[in-house]
């Protein structure tokens, strides 16, 4: 059972302390670090830590974390996965939204101001772009596996490949 928190204790919370979780929709026991490592790799976590101290507004970081949160919530929820499998147009819109957010981060880059920092952001964007691509491709691969299973089980011609399974 959770210990009750008094209102006075909440009012005394320090606003300068970093949020414990920045990835939205993370209602799992996984920390942001674990999610970033699972989706982007350990190098991305190191890059995020380097860039964290240099945040100005944090808007680009929020957009990146939204992308990771969207991917994470779908990966952890079979109902959302089924919905996106059954609605290719909806899946396309989601992937486009993820790519749009990464594009907005790309637009906010300032290579002239700090080339080293910009290089780190660029590397992070490549990793995130790859994660979005892999996320999208998993649905195609899943559909292909479903098709193979149906063809192997059914004793009627498949409408796609026109072969008999038995």
In terms of topology, how is this protein built?
Layout: H1 7-11, H2 32-39, H3 42-52, H4 59-75, H5 78-86, H6 88-107, H7 115-153
Helix pairs in contact: 2-3, 3-7, 4-6, 4-7, 5-6, 6-7
Give an overview in words.
It is built from seven helices and no strands. The chain has 166 residues and is an all-alpha fold. Residues 13-18 have low confidence and may be disordered. The chain has helices spanning 7-11, 32-39, 42-52, 59-75, 78-86, 88-107, 115-153. It is elongated, with a radius of gyration of 21 Å.
Quick structural gist:
The chain has seven helices and no strands.
Helix content: 55-70%
Query: Strand pairing plus helix content: what structural class?
Result: mainly alpha
Strand fraction: under 5%
What is the number of strand segments?
Answer: 0
Counted by DSSP, the helix tally is 7
- Give the terminus-to-terminus CA distance: 56 Å
Q: Stretches where pLDDT falls below 50 for ≥5 residues?
A: 13-18
Let me know the average pLDDT: 83
* Shape assignment: elongated
Helix and strand element order: HHHHHHH
The major beta sheet can be summarized as: none
Radius of gyration: 21 Å
């Amino acid at each position: 059972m959770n210990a009750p928190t008094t209102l006075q204790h909440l009012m005394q919370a320090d606003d300068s302390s970093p949020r414990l979780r920045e990835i939205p929709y993370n209602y799992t026991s996984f920390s942001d670090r674990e999610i970033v490592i699972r989706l982007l790799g350990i190098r991305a976590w190191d890059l995020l830590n380097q860039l964290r101290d240099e945040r100005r507004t944090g808007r680009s970081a929020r957009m990146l974390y939204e992308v990771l949160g969207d991917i994470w919530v779908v990966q952890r929820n079979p109902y959302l996965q089924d919905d996106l499998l059954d609605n290719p147009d909806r899946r396309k819109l989601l992937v486009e939204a993820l790519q749009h957010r990464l594009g907005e981060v790309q637009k906010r880059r300032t290579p002239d101001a700090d080339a080293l920092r910009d290089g780190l952001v660029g590397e992070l964007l490549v990793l995130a772009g790859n994660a979005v691509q892999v996320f999208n491709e998993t649905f195609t691969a899943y559909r292909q596996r479903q098709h193979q299973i149906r063809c192997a089980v059914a004793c009627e011609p498949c409408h796609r490949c026109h072969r008999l399974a038995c």
